[in-house]
Amino acid sequence: SLAIFELKHLVVCPVRFAQKLFLPKRRRKKTPHYLHNNCVLSKEWISRHRKVICRIVTMLRPIWIFVIISLGLSNCWRTENKPRIYGDHVPTKMIAPHLKRVQQRIVMLHDYFRTKVIPPASNMLIMKWHHGAARAAQKWADQCRLLTHDSPKGRWIDNYGACGQNIFVSTQKVPWLFALRMWFTERQNFTYGSPKNDLHVIGHYTQMVWAATHKVGCGLAKCARGFRGKSYYNYVCNYCPIGNHDDKLGFPYQIGRPCQSCPQHCHSKRVRLCKNGCNAADLWANCRELNKWPGWLCNTATHEGLERRRNCLATCTCRHKIHD
Asked: What range(s) does the SCP domain occupy (predicted)?
């Protein structure tokens, strides 16, 4: 706004602009009022401020040269309607998930969206990149199975079991932000605590914001034949541990102030998310019920005890950490 204001004075009245720039306030007050309004110059004023006028001419010369060049090049600007964030204008290095910079970007975007849930979450974990999950996601993306999820075996990660998976396809190269935002927009179909939530219309959103999920790995591939024979780009992200449990679909996180469930483990520098995640997952659905007898469930003295502990690893090893 200030720049526009000064430019207006420069175009309409160059001398007035120079007065504002070079003359002290006490001298400007002595300038006749009609000079300010109509830019009329008297011989007396010109004689008194000859040095100022010379400075005006010197100052304006490069500006007018720049204006003339700009007008001459005005027809050289790009005229196509397609923005540069689409298609071939998106460099591969901007979206290739094997690059560390892209991995950091994907993690940062997930953390951002996880802080935007409504109602707010008290136990939402911060995300980290998982190379094993990324390898599995890339392997499946390369298969080019249009909008088809990988098998649990293909998504299996040690200590986590079968991880969750989100898929996005596009006929053009787009930044990862587009894929994540598309998944997140399913929030409009989600009602917290409702038993009527439909996994098929909210599943991408709930997996993104599942509180106990804290590892992500993604893959991207260009596929030759898709819908109507057109090529497309296959975006795949795997999430560990998996979310979207049937009995908790309406409760992907706990309601409360950010970090309310982890006051001693809050990542408050960048985002207010919890960082006390469990590096394991329960493979049995009833581990919490079985934990009424922890000495029996997590007993490692017998072969049966080792088997129970392996299938309820989070319950047995993460007593003060966030997990399902």
From this structure: 101-247
